[in-house]
Fold:
Amino acid sequence: AVAVQPMWISSFSHAAQRKGLASPDDEFVLPLQIARHFDHSAAGIEIARHWVEHAGGSWQAGVFGEYDCAAALECLAELNTIWSAGEATQTTVNLGARKSINPHLNLIGSLGRQIHASSAQTVFYLGVQLLKD
Structure:
């Protein structure tokens, strides 16, 4: 399977920008994902280009996998790296899960470590996935 999922990222909260949780600059991301599905699992790669307003862009590359670990539950793993000219590389390692709530709704969450040149921090993600037939 091959997918291209263009994304536009913008912060609408000035409070989040002041706290350093969101960038004031808009960002456009063009990722390409290639995945192979097996009986109860899948594995894939992703490469993406990021264009950031008022800044140089960056590149992103990673590998991911998923496994049907229980009824209506998929276990997820990801290794992802972002780099740009003149800046430290940032690598993220995540483990997570996707739980099917109903045929049109999934709950997704992960927990991991984001590693910079001189530091590391815990990262988490929680979201919903809306599915259409």
Remarks:
- The first helix runs from residue 14 to 18.
- The CA atoms of residues 10 and 26 lie 5 Å apart.
- The mean pLDDT is 90.
- The radius of gyration is 16 Å.
